[in-house]
Amino acid sequence: MGAVTSATERTPLDRQTLLEEANRLIQNHDDYLHGMIATDVDQKNGVLVFKGDYFLDDNGLPTLKTTAVFNMFKHLAHELSEKYQLID
Question: Which InterPro entries match (predicted)?
Fold first, then answer.
């Protein structure tokens, strides 16, 4: 009771602006790897879900970089879902 809902405080952003912000955060992050980029974003139940190259091998299996990308996209979802709402 008395809790403030953060959804009312989120800034609406279009897909392109949101991806630009996400990629700026990726490139400035300590765990950035060359080629790591968010190429798309969706919103599901108020959570921003980022997509991009997961650096899978030729058989479609994860590589060492895959975990880093997954963790980066999870970080973006946590950081940006609290601030922004995707609009089309």
Answer: DUF2498 (IPR019633), YciN_sf (IPR038191)
Assigned token pair, 12: 């609406």
Alpha-carbon dihedral 30, 52, 82, 12, rounded to 10 degrees: 130
Cross-strand pairs, 87: 14
Residue range 9-87 forms a domain whose CATH class is alpha beta
Q: Give 12-55 pLDDT, tens digit per residue.
A: 999 999 999 999 999 999 999 999 999 999 999 999 999 999 99
Q: What are phi and psi of 46, to 5 degrees?
A: 85, 0
* Domain boundary assignment for the chain: 9-87
As a whole number of angstroms, the distance between CA 65 and CA 69 comes to: 6
pTM: 0.85
Q: What distance in Å separates the CA atoms of residue 11 and residue 8, rounded to the nearest whole number?
A: 9
Alpha-carbon dihedral sign for residues 66, 28, 74, 81: negative
Q: Side-chain half-sphere of 2: how many Cα atoms within 13 Å? A: 0
